[in-house]
Model the fold of this input.
Amino acid sequence: MRLTGFFVLVAGGSWAYLFYQAWQMSHLPMSQMRMPPMAFDAWSAGDLAWIFGMWAVMMVAMMLPSALPMFAAFT
Done:
């Protein structure tokens, strides 16, 4: 039960953050909608960590709904 509550809390927090970001984007002044030009610098270790973090969050978000019943069955 605790594990299910934890996963529901994580998923709910993720959805809340997503809605906050959507709200923030819709309330930007149009002058701040400009996209900065692309920078073609070499990747650093920080870039790799950022990309890995985004990938890990995406994998959890995609796998959690189908894995939650199995976690609940074995706890």
Summary: The mean pLDDT is 84.
